[in-house]
C-alpha cells in the first residue's frame, strides 16, 4: 500500500501519525481516502474547486505531482507521497 508522509502542522488531524498508509490507484483517489479517514485534512490540501492548493506541494517519490499528472497521477503500492506545505519568509 502507498504511504503518505504527513507534515507536522497537519498531524493533529491524523492522530499525530507522521506516516499513514492508504489505498488508491491515483493521487486523487488517495487524497479522497485521506479526507474520509481523517476529516478536515482534504480542505487543507485542496481548494474549493478540488485542485491542490497553491501553497501545498505534493511529491510522489521525490517528483512534484504538478510536473506529472497532478491528481490523475497513477500511484502504485510501493510509492511514497509527501505533503509539503510551502514556507514563506522574508
Defining key terms:
90 residues; Ubiquitin-like (UB roll); five-stranded mixed beta sheet; 2 helices; 5 strands
Offer a concise description of the structure.
This protein is α+β, with helices and mostly antiparallel strands and 90 residues long. 18% of the residues lie in helices and 21% in strands. The protein has a single domain (3-85), classed as Beta-grasp domain (Ubiquitin-like (UB roll)), CATH 3.10.20.
How does this model look, in words?
With 90 residues, the chain is of the alpha+beta class. The chain has a single domain (3-85), classed as Beta-grasp domain (Ubiquitin-like (UB roll), Roll). The protein is built from two helices and five strands. The longest helix is centred in the middle third of the chain and has 11 residues, at 27-37. The model has no long low-confidence stretch (mean pLDDT 94).
* CATH topology-level fold name: Ubiquitin-like (UB roll)
Question: Class, according to the CATH hierarchy?
Answer: Alpha Beta
Class derived from helix and strand content: alpha+beta
Biggest sheet: strand arrangement: 2-1-5-3-4
What's the total count of β strands? 5
Characterize the main sheet.
5 strands, mixed
Question: What is the percent of helical residues?
Answer: 10-25%
CATH architecture: Roll
Unreliable stretches covering 5 or more consecutive residues: none
Mean pLDDT: 94
Domain module tally: 1
- Give the quaternary arrangement of the chains: single chain
* Separate helix tally: 2
Q: Could you tell me the strand content as a percent range? A: 15-25%
The Rg value, from CA coordinates, equals 12 Å
First-last Cα distance: 39 Å
**Overall 3D shape:** globular
CATH superfamily membership: Beta-grasp domain
Order of helices and strands: EEHHEEE
Amino acid at each position: 500500500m502507498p504511504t503518505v508522509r504527513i507534515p507536522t502542522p497537519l498531524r493533529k488531524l491524523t492522530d499525530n501519525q507522521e506516516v499513514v498508509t492508504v489505498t488508491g490507484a491515483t493521487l486523487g483517489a488517495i487524497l479522497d481516502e485521506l479526507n474520509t479517514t481523517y476529516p478536515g485534512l482534504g480542505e487543507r490540501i485542496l481548494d474549493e474547486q478540488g485542485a491542490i492548493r497553491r501553497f501545498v506541494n505534493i511529491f510522489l517519490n521525490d517528483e512534484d505531482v504538478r510536473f506529472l499528472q497532478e491528481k490523475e497521477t497513477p500511484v502504485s503500492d510501493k510509492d511514497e507521497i509527501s505533503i509539503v506545505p510551502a514556507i514563506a519568509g522574508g
